[in-house]
């Protein structure tokens, strides 16, 4: 799964990405600081089953810190969008094209209203962040629309007497955007176009269709950034009232904490509500940390960066955590590593699906699986649950 980090220029988007991944990416208050997309690893944070089972684990594909499992996930930071991006303004077509493979989006918004629509610094509170949300959604919709519209006369004519053929062609046209045929059919039905001749669809019909497709194919979390600046809290409530998924966030505070933890100045785990000073600090450092504690952690419970990531992968993408093991008694792999792997899989995934995710040979030779917690043998179609520990029994050895 890949999540794209989007937004207009100068809203703290690259700061959010750096804080989440600790990659040294260019950060600045001018347009197009980011030109080429940056891809990095962030972490999905969840309680590890090691505490529940009272064992000491030895993770190999993730990290466990005091019973908290951190599972790597991919984020991609693309350059800031400007109005007219879908028509090529500001290298917009390139930036939008970078998002083709994204399964979901995190839209970083300047909730303080201290940047105008072009990303230029202005007095806090003099710009409505909802306008930024609308403009980015509109650019994405127009991007989808232009992709479909270019060949629409040909598609509608060739499928005049065959609706299913039209659906197939729409899917083929948009498949490069990580959109499934099921998404296409769901959208067509939702906007009332099912079984209507494609030649009768108007431009408004097409725009309504791509808007719906965008919502289901690129679900979005709003990161209400700069939440420590007034009037960001008021704008955060305003954004929430529209029904959009929104998390209060201070990416700058998170970056400061992550860097301090990396230098062993403090003990801090992403998403924590506090930190512990473990080294001698100068007055400027202590003052900066005190402000973060007062303005961000004390008021909001966290910086919001980790919550944004967790919400996107768990709620929007519907992922759960499962722990495959090779020995159901010792909960280990062949090397004796206890609870070595934690995998994020789609809610509703089956035991056989997990086998294929681990290794093709396991899936092809699947015989049965064991629900380790319950001590039960389960079949290929058994639906897995969050925090399940699973042993796969296969006729083919894992490569």
The parts where pLDDT drops under 50 for at least 5 residues are 24-35
Largest beta sheet, briefly?
7 strands, mixed
End-to-end distance, in Å? 23 Å
Compressed to H and E, one letter per element, the order equals: EHEHEEHEHHHHHEHEHEEHHEEHHEEE
Mean pLDDT: 90
> Class of the domain at 2-37 and 78-141 and 219-313 in CATH?
Alpha Beta
The CATH topology of the domain at 2-37 and 78-141 and 219-313 corresponds to Rossmann fold
**Strand segment count:** 14
**Which class best fits the helix and strand makeup?**
alpha/beta
Helix count from the secondary structure assignment: 14
* Rounded Rg: 23 Å
Task: Estimate what percentage of residues fall within beta strands.
Answer: 15-25%
Helix content estimate: 25-40%
CATH structural architecture of the domain at 2-37 and 78-141 and 219-313: 3-Layer(aba) Sandwich
In CATH terms, the superfamily of the domain at 2-37 and 78-141 and 219-313 is P-loop containing nucleotide triphosphate hydrolases
**3D shape:** flat
